[in-house]
Amino acid sequence: MKITEVKVWLVEGIKYNWTLIKVFTDTGHTGVGEATNWPGSPIIEAAARHVGERVIGLDPLRTDFIWTKLYRDLNWIGPFGASMCAISGLDIALLDLKGKVLGVPCYQLLGGAFRTELQLYANYWFTGGAHSAEDYARQARAVKAAGFTGLKFDPFAHTNYLYGTDLSTNLGLTPTQQDRAFEVTKAVRDAVGADFDIMIETHAMLNGQMAVQMAERLAPLKMTWYEEPVGPENAFTLRSLRQRLPGNVSICVGERHYTRHNFRPVFEQHLCDIVMPDITRCGGPSEMKRIATMAEAYNVLVAPHNPNGPLSTLASAHVCASIPNFFRCEFMFNDVPWRDTVISHPLDVRDGRLHLSDRPGLGVDLVEEELAKHPGVRELGARENFYV
Predict the structure, then answer these.
(1) pLDDT for 118-129, tens place per residue?
(2) pLDDT, tens digit, for every residue of 11-33?
(3) Where are the beta strands (DSSP E) in the chain?
(4) Are the C-beta atoms of residues 172 and 210 closer than 8 Å to each other?
(5) Both ends of the chain: CA-CA distance in Å?
(6) pTM of the model
(7) CATH code for the structural domain at 108-362
(8) Where are the domains of the chain?
(9) Which of 19, 34, 123, 124 could form a disulfide with 311 if both were Cys (CB 3.0 to 4.6 A apart)?
(10) Which CATH number fits domain 3-103: 3.30.390.10, 3.50.50.60, 3.40.50.300, 3.20.20.140?
């Protein structure tokens, strides 16, 4: 069996464009994957096309060989970023293809299932209203009513994410902005009750002093985790901040960490309690499984980052089905109405859980005529409501 063609589509999603992939072979077998990242989705699309060209003629069942070859070949332009997104998307497609060849779900290829119903947490549930405390509370109650038991949001997003228009604050918050972030978070906690997970996102957009100050202020509201209080560039900076945070504040990082090599210092220095690898960035399901195994050795939970398209959701779920240290998977509560039309079977989400089928591979195919109806939009910078 040999790879004969790799197709790539850029499809509009609710937050940003999805980069979707399909691998074809000389035996008629196919596999689908996703390489989504933002910003610069045209760069990801071009990288995916290039990686697709590099694997023509290879045996698609040699998934680890292809992953390693691409990683080594493209390492000259850097082991992270667009090239790793392309490798990630191809890895998803090859695992899907192998599952379809062998007639088994992807989770069987990853060691078998600990579970086939995956607990989700809601993100992007807060898109309506004026983003006041009352609006957040109202929408949080809708999330709970839908059967979810956890949600995530960034209470600072409406104050300090001006992206290029004003950098003078150096990622700080005024007292009024600090008060508003607390009031929004307290309104959400009051709306959903005590027995509900609340994940607080910072997007690494607070300076060190402010990240500590807001963690201390929000700690009484019982955050499930405090996400990305610093960026991924330096593990020592994260260690320093972790030592300053209240003892009851758990840290979650990883959405911008690529491959096991980037995660290694995080584990070795015990810098977090939960990791959130993104399957379209970290290296695909092959690498996410390796990262999860490393996390288990350090008693760290896994909760994949996933503000992406439906193939990313399914691929993440198949990995999470196969690991013992799974916590939750991120899910876009509000999404484009065509999300389920571009795949052959809709995502089976009931009462805040994703139910995996026993269909081969990821359990779906791409519907090409539907992809063509929703071409990716041109990126001119951060969308007005990207975070809020």
Answers:
(1) 999 999 999 988
(2) 999 989 999 999 999 999 999 99
(3) 3-11, 18-25, 30-34, 117-123, 150-153, 197-201, 225-227, 251-253, 274-275, 301-302, 329-332, 349-350, 353-355
(4) yes
(5) 47
(6) 0.96
(7) 3.20.20.120
(8) 3-103, 108-362
(9) 34
(10) 3.30.390.10
